[in-house]
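Pair request: fold both.
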Amino acid sequence: MANDKESYKSALQGKNIPILTLDNKWHQLFTQTEMTPEISDLSDELNALVERDGKIRSETKDLKKVKKKLLGEIVPLRDEANKAGDASAIEKKIEDRTRLINDCNERIASYDDELRDLSKKIYEIDYELMIETMKVCYERLHDNTDYITELDKWVSDFRVELKKNIVLMQQAEMENYNLYSYMHQIFGPEVIEVFDMKYDPDRRHPIRRPLAGNDKDYTD
């Protein structure tokens, strides 16, 4: 498997690997083959990471909106403080907003670190999932190829045997037809009926015709 991973790594180098569990075509693969426990576990782990990534990005976006709003409130408060005789209350508001802005900055920075870590983990799990998927699909392709080869040989052998049997059947049919025709000519229909010979060449083998040179109708 180590050699397989190296081969796959070389094949995937520089390629944009999609997040497999978000790709409907990846899910369609498992309508053709079974999902192994390893693939199921990896897909669950990947989904959890992607969900966490999405949640953090959403919260980061909200924090940036809050930060922008707080920054927008500080400027007019600062102008108001400069004009006021006693600016202590206004300064308190500015300090509160500054503290909240710092809190936002810390949480955004923390989220940025986690996002970088998540991005790395998502890539690693997604890569492992792709390796397992390729392994399972390759094994299924290999097994199917062996099965197809086996069936193809059976079909080829059957065709040969079928052709032989068709020839033998046609020979036996022609022999029956000729026997009946000759007996009909030699002994006549009355004798044939005495022996209860119910062979009807025109009904049994409608494609057959009397032997060349025999103008007599033998269907009487």
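--- second member of the pair ---
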Amino acid sequence: MRKIVLMMSVSLDGYIEGPHREIDWHRVDAELHRHFNEEISRFGALLDGRVTHELMAAYWPTADQDPASTPTEAEFAGIWRDIPKIVYSRTLERADWNTTVVRDVVPEEVQALKEQPGGDLGLGGADLAAAFLRHDLIDEFRIYVHPVLIGAGKPLFPQADALTELQLTETRTFGNGVVLLRYERVPAGQV
């Protein structure tokens, strides 16, 4: 069965974006970008909220036509265009680039997606991740901690009333100081 994999970059103090939605503090160099290309190309689909999707759709569909794009960026443009995408939005009427719009996170529908053949499902966006967490739908967390403190902004995880047990399955330090922390859910009763 496919897994739902939350893959997000955060500052050391736990924010995914600054107070004005800025992400210019991300430390994505060639090594990290190649890693992202490899990981994302293995996914069977990307699950994003509207804001994340619109941010990606504003740049990646034609990034490989920009003479300033690196080969790694051009490669990602093709990966992003080709991969099936599901955008969760109550306001978006339609979306291009191999994208399906879904109105709400319905656990039974997500379970049906997981039962389909193909690669794991990459989850992006803090608001959507919060909805998936409320429904206990995230199987794996790939958190990329960037070596910066930004002091304020949007946190990755909302406050919660329940404990979520995780098991560390991988760490990796990139040359630019970004650290991947990869965790999987601990099945109930195995703590």
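Observation on the second member. The chain has a mean pLDDT of 93.
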